[in-house]
Amino acid sequence: MASVLSYESLVHAVAGAGSMTAMTVFFPLDTARLRLQVDEKRKSKTTHMVLLEIIKEEGLLAPYRGWFPVISSLCCSNFVYFYTFNSLKAVWVKGQHSTTGKDLVVGFVAGVVNVLLTTPLWVVNTRLKLQGAKFRNEDIVPTNYSGVIDAFHQIIRDEGILALWNGTFPSLLLVFNPAIQFMFYEGLKRQLLKKRMKLSSLDVFLIGAIAKAIATTVTYPLQTVQSILRFGHHRLNPENRTLGSLRNILYLLHQRVRRFGIMGLYKGLEAKLLQTVLTAALMFLVYEKLTAATFTVMGLKSARKR
């Protein structure tokens, strides 16, 4: 029984990792979002205007800068998250009906494990995505990395190994994002399955989009702080608490509100919603299809059908 559960968790993890290739389609939206979060003096507010500026100033391929390391990290991150989520859920539920509360708790724990293991990848990815960018903000110090390995080497050499976990604190708070996402996704899925035997592709796409939109909007201000701390090249805080203590998070949030008003906390939300909602919807769709196909080929009954 244990080996079957472990195998099923592995199937879910592989499907979850593979499904993140869907982000390739919407990758430029994430580039626009990151610029709006980090480059405070960029005046363009709409996603398409920011993308046009990036293409005009930095070239046609600039919106895809850092694509490969980001996609690779997303696959690793999703593998860890889905494997942990489904393993914990299989052990806790043990053949019983799952509940929204259990999904939230399991999603939270899986998120914590994911953050602690994969934050160094995201710190490096943020640096690489912003390398070569034309910033409006003179407080930003440019970076010069030749690749992922060189970025790891320079960060450890110049900033210390703990710098690889910059933004860990807001990231730990942000585990509520996938937890909230999975809670709504699983809840909506259960409600629909009460009325029909099987969900259509459109059903999965829509509930995935709704779940991610809710989670993203609720947690977006923390995502802004997370991006700033991961980049780590602002001269904003004279005390320079690069690891992101609660006091530093509050400082950054206060600075944002003071400079731009409450809406400053949501700069880039339009791009983030477009990118994450569409990506998440496709991700869940591909994830469900990959999982179902794998179980069918292997002749196993999915533990998710409970």
UniProtKB/TrEMBL annotation:
It catalyses: FAD(out) + NAD(+)(in) = FAD(in) + NAD(+)(out); FAD(in) + adenosine 3',5'-bisphosphate(out) = FAD(out) + adenosine 3',5'-bisphosphate(in); ADP(out) + CoA(in) = ADP(in) + CoA(out); FMN(in) + adenosine 3',5'-bisphosphate(out) = FMN(out) + adenosine 3',5'-bisphosphate(in). The keyword Oxidoreductase does not apply. Solcar repeats lie at residues 7-91, 98-191, 199-293. The chain crosses the membrane at residues 12-32, 104-124, 199-222, 273-300. Keywords: Antiport, Cytoplasm, Membrane, Peroxisome, Repeat, Transmembrane, Transmembrane helix, Transport. Its main location: cytoplasm. It is a multi-pass membrane protein. It is found in: Cytoplasm; Peroxisome membrane. InterPro entries: MCP_dom_sf, MCP_transmembrane, Mito/Peroxisomal_Carrier. It comes from the Eukaryota. GO terms for molecular function: ADP transmembrane transporter activity; AMP transmembrane transporter activity; antiporter activity; ATP transmembrane transporter activity; coenzyme A transmembrane transporter activity; FAD transmembrane transporter activity; FMN transmembrane transporter activity; NAD transmembrane transporter activity. GO terms for cellular component: peroxisomal membrane. PANTHER family: PEROXISOMAL MEMBRANE PROTEIN PMP34, PEROXISOMAL MEMBRANE PROTEIN PMP34-RELATED. Peroxisomal transporter for multiple cofactors like coenzyme A (CoA), flavin adenine dinucleotide (FAD), flavin mononucleotide (FMN) and nucleotide adenosine monophosphate (AMP), and to a lesser extent for nicotinamide adenine dinucleotide (NAD(+)), adenosine diphosphate (ADP) and adenosine 3',5'-diphosphate (PAP). May catalyze the transport of free CoA, FAD and NAD(+) from the cytosol into the peroxisomal matrix by a counter-exchange mechanism. Belongs to the mitochondrial carrier (TC 2.A.29) family. Interacts (via N- and C-terminus peroxisomal targeting regions) with PEX19; the interaction occurs with the newly synthesized SLC25A17 in the cytosol. This is Peroxisomal membrane protein PMP34.
